[in-house]
Amino acid sequence: MVTIIDRDQRFLESSQKIESPFQLDPTLCLYSPQDNVDSLAHPRIAAWIDFVRKEYEPKFPKAKRRVLLFMPCTKTKPYPFSSEHKAINQRLIDSGFRPTSRQYLPQELQARLEPSFSQEVLNLSPLIDDEGLLIHRMVISEPMGVVPYEHIVEYRGQPSPATAYDDPGLFEKRGNAVSPWRTDSTATAVSANRWKWGDEERRAYVVMHNAMAEAVATVVARIGHNYDDIVSWVAPGLTHRSFVIGRSERSANNVAASRKVGTTRLELIGANDHLPEGQKITCLPTPEQCKEAVERLADRLGTDLTHAYGVYARGGANATPLALPELLDDLMARLRPTA
Predict the structure, then answer these.
(1) pLDDT tens, 26-65?
(2) Cis preceding-peptide flag for 21 (omega within 30 of 0)
(3) H or E, element range at 189
(4) How far is CA 22 from CA 119, 149, 318, 320, 330, in A?
(5) pTM given for the model
(6) How far apart are the two ends of the chain, measured CA to CA in Å?
(7) For 254, which DSSP code?
């Protein structure tokens, strides 16, 4: 159960999401949409966004085909140590991809990695297979927009904020994405453990959402020419998907197109609304792929769809469904369309 009222206790809970040797920066604990908007002026976040928007250039070896793969941020930091990223990266390794350089997370984390995983899941460099297909991984993250895998730990010779923050502040449905201690909080408690957003939370959500979508689009527009395909692997119905998809894609993805603030509706603008046709991001898995994955999962487990949906929701590994083998089959089919 997440603490809501006691800010100091919540900081402690946030610190437990950061894997040693990395440490939480308490000034990067963002518990509400308003906290998120404020973070855009935080020195560490502002410097990071400036870096990825204007300066960052991907570096990788020659390849026959290059794919930019966006992955979701996770509560566990650094991301590659999360259950979700370990499952996705292990599937890539098992499918014949290998690191292009010896850029790993610290040895302390390597020593704690479960023996069922290859050490390569903690490698941060682009991956390549024997056919010359290169996968360059980035993370879609609030409040940083995008985090290239190779800069998860450091950039510009300094520590990256990607290993030091906690940001559950945009997840309205959880009922705890609020900062009741703020003077501009309009959230109200509906039970001992759940709060409801008010107008200021919804207004700030739209501001932050659109800022993150614009940051993603700016990076893709600047470096997208390096890739033959750009794919995002983000959970259906969640904020990361909303950051990516354009207005014409929202209905099919069951994602809201706006938020009501007072009597006004504020539009949610995705990265694909900013990008020209040749650079738009393909958002996977599709709703149809998710439905079919549950059916295949039920067959694999020898159970009914009701039980399979329960396993699906947990991802089978304390993760989101993105880590399920059935959905990872769809990801691999996209990465290797002729395989």
Answers:
(1) 999 999 999 999 999 999 999 999 999 999 999 999 999 9
(2) yes
(3) strand 188-189
(4) 19, 16, 22, 24, 34
(5) 0.96
(6) 44
(7) T
| pLDDT the model gives residue 29 | 98
Q: Is 233 helix (H, G, I), strand (E, B) or coil?
A: strand
Cβ contacts of 236 within 8 Å, gap of 6 or more: 253, 254, 285, 287, 290
Alpha-carbon distance 47 to 227, whole Å? 26
Distances (CA, A) of 162 to 45, 165, 234: 9, 6, 18
Dist CA 296 CA 305 (whole Å):
10
Residues with Cβ within 8 Å of residue 146, at least 6 apart in sequence: 52, 70, 138, 139, 140, 215, 216, 219
* Degrees to nearest 5, angle at CA 279 with 276 and 285: 120
- Mind listing the pLDDT tens digit for each residue in 245-297? 999 999 999 999 999 999 999 999 999 999 999 899 999 999 999 999 999 99
